[in-house]
Amino acid sequence: MFAKLVCFAALAFAMLVCDVSAFGQARFKERAVYGGLLVCIFYLGFLFVTEKRWPNLDTLFNLFTGPAKRIVSWLNPTASSS
Amino acid sequence: MNKQEQISSVQMTILFLFYLTGSSIVIIPAPLTNVAGNAAWISLLIALILGMLLLTGILYLYRRFPHQSLIEYSGSLLGRGWTVLLFIPFVCVMFWHVAGIVIEIGAFFKTTMLKESPTYAVNALLFVTIALTVRAGIEAIARMAPLLLILMFGFIFLVCVLVANLYHVEYLLPIVPSGIGPIFHAAYIAYGFPYAELVVFAIILPCIRPKDAPNVRKHLYFGLAANGATLLLSIICSIMVLGPLSGDLKYSLYQLARLIFIRETIERIESVIGFSLIVGFYFKASILLFILVRSVSHLLKLSNERLIVFPVAFVCLLLSLTTYTNEATLEEIVNTTWPLLNNVAYVCPMLLLIVAALLRRRGRKMNGDG
């Protein structure tokens, strides 16, 4: 966990240092989008460091697994029986 | 990385070829032969034909709107509200798409070369490289591509030539071992990865120099055909060397490279070949990250897309570390869910735009006649 935290913090620090001057000159809209992305980064970073199984993009994608399996078994009936 | 950046149609074709072949050359032979056995090449041909149809679709839209990306002309065809509604899933799926490629690179490294290294260290280094590449812009990416393309394709052909002494042509028979169902199933997999993914290229087609626009059609068809031929070669070579095992061993091309043994002088060259295959993954991820940043920028109408490269890459990195972390679920999404997800998020908006463009054209003609 500590190694993950260090990795995340180092990358976040490097990113913020690289972007700080451009952020200062950016318009409100760009700053808002950047802020929104930062919120996502901190949420996902928290999931990464703590290994929590909280909602993520895969939770949404898994909703498609059932219909996709039905398509596969329609295309290849032997796939569902094997 | 700015709006004025333009590349030639040959450079765009090289990027297109890299994008389609980059990761699929390593990954696709195994699931196809696993499902369809010796008929995997037939499945690939079916998927390739579907890919040709999709390419025809994006080229039709490009001909109608040569100076606008998919999102920009969606705004003029469907209005802002529908565009936002259609392209939010498009962008969300693309976020994971970039992450998915890096998950695959991480898995490839983990199983073949860097077995003890933590996945997050490998993925983080890759993402830093990819993000820096995207910050350099599409012109820099396009200038860098030809040499690396030659390197990657050169090594693919080299592997196929050097394992020629292990070919067993009889392994290709019977051609259809388990009926037509598995062929369609494997075609579904190959359609989802990589052919349905080519729709996202509609975002960067306006980067082609206007004077090169007339050539883009034949160049991109050639790129798609070259990709099909290369994947076909790699599938047929894996079947001829590995036989029934080709479906069970992941990263077929790498497995073939491991078998190269010529008079104790050329052996254990799989790492060299492995790194040239990594180049394909890296390029695909770079091109896709560029497309993602541009999509976000067009969707939200941002004036400075360079600013969001690092945070977008960071989100993708964290998605690669927090989603589908075990191999079984990753395999399920790639082989089962991804083709459907691709269709819903990428192909459906494109088809809707084609219908809208055709209706508008018909309406204008009727108004003109009236």
TrEMBL record, chain A:
Keyword Membrane: yes
Keywords tagged on the record: Membrane, Transmembrane, Transmembrane helix
Domain of life, source organism: Bacteria
Transmembrane regions: 32-50
Protein name according to UniProt: Uncharacterized protein
Protein species of origin: Cohnella terricola
Automatic annotation (TrEMBL), chain B:
Protein's UniProt keywords contain Coiled coil: no
PANTHER family, alphabetized: SPORE GERMINATION PROTEIN A2
Gene Ontology CC entries for this record: membrane
Principal place of residence: membrane
Protein name as catalogued: GerAB/ArcD/ProY family transporter
Taxonomic source organism: Cohnella terricola
Record family assignment: Belongs to the amino acid-polyamine-organocation (APC) superfamily. Spore germination protein (SGP) (TC 2.A.3.9) family.
InterPro entries, A to Z: Spore_GerAB (IPR004761)
Ranges annotated as spanning the membrane: 12-32, 38-62, 83-108, 120-138, 145-168, 188-208, 220-243, 272-295, 307-325, 337-359
One GO term (biological process): spore germination
Domain of life of the source: Bacteria
Membrane topology: Multi-pass membrane protein
Cell membrane among keywords: no
Compartments, record wording: Membrane
Keywords for this protein: Germination, Membrane, Transmembrane, Transmembrane helix, Transport
